[in-house]
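Please fill in the sequence for the structure shown.

STRUCTURE ENCODING:
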């Protein structure tokens, strides 16, 4: 396929969507500015953030009718996804071309990655229990510590209000049932899903077996808030339990976590908060080659203080720490702790916005790391702002990389590994095209050193590789009267500097368009267009580009009842996200929901 054919779908999306604002400019904005907390660890309006941040809120999750997180995240600029087969298959998320374990994943502020691999099991988190997702692109180590080289994705569990029930059915015997009840200050959501599935692999797969590979998952999330003294106490907890089948094997999983936080205002200028969190994860896998078990246990605590500095700036500082232990049955059982302290200042001087932050970490195994970030924004007018930033990131080696005994003397870990480090720069332009319309253009480069690779003697893990990732992101958002729209475009050059080849499973270009229209009677119609360019898999096997069209709609039936539907892969495109693994063909999903 020629290069012009690869980028053609993106050009078509852009050309078509740029016509849309012509008539939308006359509409009036009816939605307030969302607040975000992940970029600086303090509240700020989304448009004030100097980092590239996007928000997926509960309304958007419900409109999408996405059965899993992959359908939501694949629409975002700078995000690449790859899944081994159908629902429940192992899922990787790459942010701005970095590795899947270069993304810090937080759920209600609790670190949620596996201690062995450093990755997060995206496939296990049901969208039904999610209230909001904040995606911060670019290094955030100066606020959050290890892992935030590509950015941070923080997921907030659902805070149910009223009583809702939703039952759905779709192709591949995909059955789901969700029920929630709450008052806003306290609530509980339960979600169950069972999928008959399809064969995870095809004839190109290394373990092809033509039987259907199913998935079942039960999720539970609860939260409560209570005024206590001069502050507010927040409690949240979640659980996921189920089974995933794959060709010639299956996995049983149990994943649960809880968090407790208290925040209080000391006076008009000073406020503080403290938090505790715990995360547990167990994965048991059975294949023809034997059985394995991986366990992660993590506890964490933190405190931070915020105070104003004059009329237009603030200081935030705090300390946090976590202790994690991991077990890989028959291979290793290890633990370690990390303690960090950080401080940040952000504010404005006339037309100039600024942010400075610095953090020091002490890891029990590899030693100390110092990271920092500086960012600035110049408001050229009420509608235009120039942006720039420089940031330092790092990632501590995982237990697998440090302690794995390998296989028959090969692919062993290395306890002398250094952390991976990065320097990232970004330039951007943010502007308003009219009421209810926002756009942002970002140019970024991230240089990552001491990448860990199994390339030593007998393929032992060593620090050897270097990567350079350059890219351009464009986002246009629309919230005007009955219209909701998002256009996301990404071009990136994710290069392995040692080999000169592209980093695996990351497209050089990708784009998406999501557009919804709310009708007068409360019904709504929506469409998604998703394009991913050519990628390369293991052994430099070429994965062709693909373009998907998805449709969704909802229709109120009265008495709190609604009928909803989603069509995935309308054009029945046959494509692969990984070599030898199947994906959804054209599929229809219907659901009946009731809210009181």
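FILLED IN BY: designer on duty
SEQUENCE:
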């Amino acid at each position: 396929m020629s290069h012009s054919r690869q980028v053609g779908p993106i050009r078509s999306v852009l050309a078509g969507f740029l016509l849309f604002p012509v008539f939308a400019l006359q509409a009036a904005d009816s939605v307030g500015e969302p607040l975000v907390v992940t970029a600086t660890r303090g509240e700020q309006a989304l448009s004030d953030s100097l980092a590239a941040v996007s928000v997926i809120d509960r309304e958007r999750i419900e409109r999408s009718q996405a059965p899993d997180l992959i359908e939501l995240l694949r629409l975002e600029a700078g995000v690449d996804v790859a899944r081994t087969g159908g629902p429940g298959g192992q899922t990787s998320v790459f942010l701005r071309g970095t590795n899947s374990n270069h993304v810090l994943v937080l759920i209600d502020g609790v670190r949620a990655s596996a201690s062995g691999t450093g990755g997060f099991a995206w496939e296990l988190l049901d969208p039904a229990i999610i209230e909001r997702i904040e995606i911060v692109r670019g290094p955030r180590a100066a606020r959050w510590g290890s892992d935030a080289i590509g950015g941070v994705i923080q997921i907030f569990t659902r805070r149910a209000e009223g009583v809702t029930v939703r039952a759905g059915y779709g192709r591949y015997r995909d059955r789901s049932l969700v029920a929630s009840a709450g008052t806003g200050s306290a609530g509980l959501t339960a979600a169950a899903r069972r999928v008959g599935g399809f064969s995870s692999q095809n004839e190109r797969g290394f373990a092809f077996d033509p039987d259907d590979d199913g998935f079942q998952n039960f999720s539970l999330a609860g939260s409560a808030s209570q005024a206590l003294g001069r502050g507010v106490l927040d409690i949240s907890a979640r659980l996921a339990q189920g089974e995933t089948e794959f060709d010639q094997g299956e996995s049983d999983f149990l994943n649960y976590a809880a968090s407790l936080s208290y925040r209080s205002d000391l006076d008009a200028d000073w406020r503080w908060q403290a938090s505790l969190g715990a995360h547990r994860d167990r994965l048991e896998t059975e294949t023809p080659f034997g059985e394995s078990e991986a366990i992660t246990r993590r506890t964490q605590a933190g405190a931070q203080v915020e105070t104003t500095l004059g009329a237009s700036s603030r200081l935030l500082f705090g300390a946090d720490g976590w202790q994690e232990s991991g077990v890989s049955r028959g291979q290793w059982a290890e633990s370690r702790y990390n303690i960090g302290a950080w401080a940040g200042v952000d504010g404005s001087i006339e037309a100039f916005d600024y942010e400075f932050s610095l953090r020091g970490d002490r890891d029990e195994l590899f030693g100390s790391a110092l990271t920092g970030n500086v960012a600035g924004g110049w408001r050229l007018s009420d509608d235009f702002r120039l942006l720039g930033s420089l940031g330092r990131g790092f990632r501590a080696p995982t237990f697998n990389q440090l302690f794995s005994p390998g296989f028959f003397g090969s692919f062993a870990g290395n306890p002398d590994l250094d952390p991976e480090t990065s320097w990232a720069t970004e330039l951007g332009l943010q502007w308003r095209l009219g009421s209810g319309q926002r756009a942002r253009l970002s140019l970024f480069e991230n240089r990552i050193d001491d990448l860990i690779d199994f390339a030593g003697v007998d393929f032992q893990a060593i620090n050897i590789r270097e990567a350079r990732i350059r890219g351009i992101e464009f986002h246009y958002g629309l919230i005007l009267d009955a219209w909701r729209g998002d256009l996301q475009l990404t071009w990136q050059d994710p290069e392995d500097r040692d080999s000169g080849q592209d980093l695996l499973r990351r497209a050089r270009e990708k784009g998406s368009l999501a557009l919804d229209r709310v009708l007068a009677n409360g019904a709504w119609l929506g469409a998604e267009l998703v394009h991913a360019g050519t990628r390369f898999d293991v052994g430099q096997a070429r994965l062709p580009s693909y373009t998907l069209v998805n449709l969704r709609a909802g229709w109120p039936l009265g008495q709190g009842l609604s009928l909803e539907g989603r069509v995935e892969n309308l054009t029945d495109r046959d494509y692969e996200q990984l070599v030898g693994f199947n994906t959804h063909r054209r599929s229809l999903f219907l659901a009946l929901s009731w809210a009181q």
